[in-house]
Fold these 4 entries.
Entry 1:
Amino acid sequence: MAAGLCWVSLLLASVALSRAVYEDQVGKFDWRQQYMGRIKFASLESGLGAKKLIAATDKNIVAALNSRTGDLLWRHVDKDTSEGTVDALMMIGQDAITVSGGRLLRSWETNIGALNWEAVLEPGSFQALSFAGSQDTARYVAVLKNSELSLHFLSNGHLKWSESIPESDSVQYQLLHSPYKGSVHVVGLVPQSHLTILTFSVEDGSISHQVRVLTPWLRTLHGTCGVIGEGVLVCGDAPMASVHIVSLLSGEETTRYSLQSLGIELAEELTQLDVITAPQNGIGESLSQFFLQIAPRRFVLMQHRDGVLTPLRDFSQVSLVNFATTGEKTVVAVMQCKTEGNQKSGPEPEDPTGQNCAEEPWYCPGHTYSINLYMADSGRRLLETTMSFTLDQSCVRPDSFYLQTFLRKDDSVGYRALVQTEDNQLLFLQQPGKSIWLREESLADVVTMEMVDLPLTGAQAELEGEFGKKAGK
């Protein structure tokens, strides 16, 4: 018996030794990094103590990051096929609503990443996702397919109703909006012919209003049109240098405003007139403000209120714009190329990739950008909100950014910014431009690797030499 115990003890001791590492190697090989890919949709918690970033990426991943450190809190990886593609992401409270592969509607609890519920959608091409409700409160989530509209309860995902959309074989239904007053609006287009506006009742899915609006100048809704305020559709018309307004509730024809009549001067022929609206937040009506992009780097903040369309502020040298809300304050953030005091003498250094982008319209000399906040309802610039940062690569530009806003003790607006660049770098910044963390999400595209022995330091070589001598004795 004693001999058996002795052998067991020796066996356990040998197993323990086989799992040991030398003291100088501790911490060198015990790391693991997780990536999520390029952000398609993102939402940052607002408020002074906010710590979460919810994102959906091109790798079919829904994830949460700690916005203070950049660490992954949780992530869910879907199929690496079109069935797992994340088509939409919307936030309401602590829940994230997603559509994947046009077939699965899901609700996630964002604190721990648990799945609240999942609903299977009817077949068809996914077009849009929106909250819907009544009494200025979101109670449902509406899903628009190319030929069908369905309404689901936010609490459990159960289907309230599903209705076929008339004339779906000839009309391209692309926009979805709810003013939270018991109705859902669906907007469809026959290019260069007319708009079809359908109003569905939230209660039973019946069509309470249907109207056709002639729009021979309109080719697409995406990028060209957006919904603001209490159901007002605004569209840009570049060939006519005009903005068209139509009410989703009652309008049977558009109201046209020329840019010249609005006091917006054009230095050259207009080639684009895009509309950028604030995302729906699940509480109250949409903002009455929106951006008109009238050139690659020129944006005008507009407001439509009480039937009057007004330009609030004209911005030049713009890279990106966005909206953000904290408390009862809504701001617009404008990222611009910073040129003052930033001109470098001599030729630009050659980009490591061999690219020459100095002639591109988006090129920013010095590669330094600034972000400023403005009140959305007036265009007034908020003092002490400037944030500046510089990108290392000359031919890489920011292509999206998101804000984490909060109210300070003096009721002023503070913020942090998440910036994503074309090469999938994520920068999280705080004023006046200090980088809190950085993630290289381009590493999510790595498909193979090779182990390479790096040269040893003198101390490491001496240490390995000592072990080699002992092994040879």
Entry 2:
Amino acid sequence: MLQYLRDSTVPYFLCDQYQNDKFYYIMLVFGLKHSKNLFYRKEDGKSFFFEKTTEDIHFEPLAFNEDFLTCIVFNEDFPNYEKVLSPEEYKKLEERLEDDNPCLIKFYFK
């Protein structure tokens, strides 16, 4: 399978899928490391297909419920969280060391 992804015989694979009352969610992985997110809003049939959020945040959901999804915060994305976190919360993120336990963050659905 890995070789098929490397040479694009298989263009992508479905890595994760979740759903709640409002959304279907799928993570598609292209090649070996390039992933994109697909949300389908059940209410109106609108789809959202993206690699990163408008704040330039990459996420890979670990859990998904009715109100939010939970992801690990990647160190390289720390600066992008300044746009969405309160100053107090962002300071906690900045003070983390690379060898600390993973940091989880919740993304709430609108």
Entry 3:
Amino acid sequence: MKKSFIINQETRNPIRELYSWLKSLQSTLCFMQTGAHPDDETTRLLAALSLGQGTHIVYVNAVRGQGGQNALGPERGDALGYLRTEELIAAMALIRADLAWLAETDDDPIRDFGFSKSDKQTFGYWGEAHSLRQMIKIVRMFKPDILLPTFLDVPGQHGHHRAVTQVTLSAFDLAADDSVYPDLNLGSWQTNALYLPAWGGGGGSYDDEVPPPNATHQVDTGEFDAVYGGTYAQIGEWSRASHATQGMGRLLDEENWPVQLHQLKTASNTPFADKLTENLPTTLAEMAEFCSGEPGKKAALKASELAAEALAAFPDIASVIPALCELQTCLDVMEGEVTQPHRHRIQLKKTQSAMAMSEACQMQISFGVTPEIPVIGAATTARISWHQAEKAGLEINNASWQDPLGAIDASGFVAGTEDGKRRSLSSEFSFTGDTPTPVMTGWHGVSVRPSTLHAQVEFTVRGTKFRRTLMPDQPLGSTPPLTAAINPAKQLVILNKPENLSLQLAVMQDAAAGVSLTTDEITLNAAPNFADALIVNTANTLQKGASFTFDVALADNLRQGRYSLAAQAGGVPLLSSQTLAYPHIRTQTLFQPCKTDIVAVDTASLHGIRVGWIDGGVDRAWFWTEQLGASVTQLDDDALLSGNLDGFDVIVSGVFAGGTRPINQAMDRLKGWMQAGGRYVSQYHRPQDNWISGQSAPYDLMPGSPSIRWRVTEAD
């Protein structure tokens, strides 16, 4: 497999990035869309506004996606939520959009608990007041001019969608009310216009009972952009393809595909047509009206000319660089004179100008740490490096840590050794505290200061000063000195066949210096209906790879239910780590309690039943079938197409297996086996899993997309 760091270097596209940032300097507007799940965003619309018109985009998402499906692998629950978080970050980066979350942390009550049939049920989990507060907080932080929920609040829609739309509509008014949540200390903000989608959610899983409102405005997404190499609708699908766990992304032809919107409310209470906002500065030139003095007004007019000049000069870097230098000087003047309600617009333009200059100078800046996942308390090196291009006139003056969480002790950045045309600054630091520093954050992008660890870089180009925020190349968090894993992590106990449990606890990471534990300090917590867990075999040290065996006796009165046994070291709960790595996103590490989950069931054993399993690779139902006593054999493609099936009582086609396994080609053989008395079970499949009626099942059967109202859903 091609190395990921080679792919990253090969596919970087500074000329396209420069074009994108130059486009962003042409508009002073901000458009915010809100949705419930990663992949709810209307990417063709956002791409057209951002990459086509230069509008600053903020997408607000409610949940992390813990309740979704996974077309790539076995991750579910919180692990899937981390993957889908990274997918949405990648999707928004592709269309140059900021991203914010109602669920700021991984333990936020705003969770994806699966299909919800009503807004009332959703708020029962999320908390209506908490959800509204989070939306108001984000509106006040990002100061959008235009607000659009993705879905309509109508019966037949997903309860999560309806809940997000409700708090979005409420936030339009309440975010402007100083008396609402003054403790946020953010100041009120009045959005200029509120829109609804003028399209329905009918079809597929949703069947809106109410038709969509009439269209008052529309945004064309069919224009072909030669620099990007596609229409904005096509670029939107490139963005959607980042949601690979959900199988997103379609191949589109070049065609007109307008997105229609319905203007629901305006700040002036007067409808307006032709454009999406009114009485707002849409360009730097129009900012002159909001500058207090003549120098600011002149700077605004000149800044607008320079922004247009830089874009017109593209891709002539020799002309772009001086235009950006002069533009930055004008923005400095404007920042001191523009009135407060609009100052954030100039501050954002300064950031975007610095990002454009970074690309124009071919800086290729990088921010890495060694080791990539630092141990709490251990010495770690951070390195900022950049390409020193000839004739660019670039000098990096200073880099400094920005630590909103107070998570590290760090030295200042100092110049490193020169390596060819690459220059560097480095800093020694260590993470503090007793628990891992979280990498999940509430927002990402350029318009609001990051809430997690980052750096600020100041640089000069031909005497003009620029400043930009620099995020680490990979999510930067910490790991505890000692991590461990219990095997098996999940177990099934059949009550009418009681057996003691044998658990293996393996040390995954060496204890750091200063950690002193004896093996008898490794314990499992006592749980109801379980006798004390006793170590029957111990290692001598707490080194990586050390293994401990626990013999867990079951109580005579054990009842059907769910139980958990968690490991401790010296009375402190241990954590286990899970690396989440796929080539289309950044690598994440998920820390969870080191425990085993046990389900006790009162059921008959499947002992003696022989099962052939056609695995789709997305779940472990075969494992639980084994736990129930069956003998399970994994059928590879050769066995499925030409092997002897006579030895099986049951053959199971696993979840999504038809999408990757030759079930259609093997169906005639399977039919013959069934006619001889075999039992065939097909688990969850969708139409897109290569399903062909009459070939994917022994009889004509076509899976569909039933309405949410007919689905059986259970959050817990």
Entry 4:
Amino acid sequence: MELTLRERFLRTMHYQYPGRIPNFEFGYWAETLPRWHSEGLPAEVNDEASAYTYFGIENFVGLNPDLNIKPPFSEETIRDDAEYRTYRDGRGITAQINKKGTKSIPHFIEFPIKSSKEWKEYKARLSDSPEGRIPDNLSETDANLRKSEAPRTIFFGSMLGWVRDIVGFEALAYLIYDERKLIEDMVETFCRIAERCLPIVLEKVEFDAAGGWEDICFNSGPLISPKMFDEIVVPRYQRITRILKRYGIDVIYTDCDGNIVPLIPSFLKGGINCMFPLEVHGGSDPVLIRERFGPDVLLMGGVDKMVLRKGPNEIEKEILRIKSVLDDGGFIPHIDHRVPADVNLENYQFYLKVKREIFGI
């Protein structure tokens, strides 16, 4: 009898033979599917879910508790013209979207936290009360997730990444030195929300993996030093991952782009044992990470999205380049971020085909 997707995921992540690994991917830029419509993709394939079905891509099912600002601010449009929309979002961040260009990543203009004064007011919206943060009927949630044969994952939030969101990259780099207690209080606040809400969910719903979000690295490395990360973030991660492990979750990952290599020892100390999405051009090459850290680090991602622009030969070389890591186990390869709009449909379909053939998916 063929294993379910859930069983294949668990075997892969525990270095056991899965028959075939999960065929996961990481989605698409907003402009990518519309481009592919002009190249033959059916018009009804117009979002990630329908694209995954069309291309035969598998996925997790899961639950995302609302562990951020509650209640959010009312979103406000500040300016809207032919080229740009400038708005203030639910977290109080002022951002601008280019209507004619790439829409995947907004341009951030102003952040709500500049000092302890703004944080005091903002913190009032970050109560650790579970009210409104988790579903009312968790038994029903569990039953619905069990109907799927996919691996079940729970979101555990963010520590420094959400702080970066509300103060900005540059300000965080200064504040972590000039007002360290302020940054520590912000990280602690997000940690307490997760600590309070996660056990309530985990008592009622079974999960196979847990995922968080950071995005605190450039291609030159992390925004803060590993020493500071160890002092400020790791102890909070340890508190959260202890909860997850108490409920049987031993595949724990966080989404962090850029060069994460200097932080991998810190992530491991914090209980995070799976690295994702492994941006190759950012410095997070799965081959090098496996060579350096061995089987202690599970891996998801790591296929260089840049090669999809280049054509079949380069795509096949990239797949063959990482096959040795796949053969070691504990690795689910897929594109290392969302597929950009400058990738044509033919190249993407070739990538999926050669990935299946070489990896035996």
